Amino acid sequence: MGWFSIKGTKIDYPVTRGKDNYFYLNHLFTGERNIMGSIFMDYRNNGDFSDKNTIIYGHNMKNGSMFSFLTKYKNQHKLKTFANMILYTPGGNFSIKPFAGIIVDGKYESVRFDFEDNYDFQNYISSIKKKSTFESDIIVQGDDRIITLCTCSYEFNNARYVLFGKLIRS
Prior knowledge:
This protein is mainly β.
């Protein structure tokens, strides 16, 4: 689907998408079985990043690979130091500006795909910014698109750290 990179980190990976959200948990983008899995888009998203909210998952590996660095965005300093996120796609390139990060329970569907209208989307953005582990001056408008990056976190059993970014065409 594309290639996702955060300058100055180990995050520099292809983004895959399967028929479900299970295959790429333990398969590389080549299809080879591997415990690290792949960085992958939610199967319910359009493959061209045209959705209002595109969700991308990746493991939090103990060796620092895959999406383990995302949990460092809980620290305000890391946000400022590593704010240069890039998404390369066949349809064009995007920069991603992080605007919120929250800790959620992975047992529940806590990320939304669909919104009734721009007002509903704005309310969603406002609610996650209020819960964010950091502050950001990035403004997300009703007609913007966002990327949601999700990885395991260890504050409690089945915790996830979810980092939200505004998608901007480069």
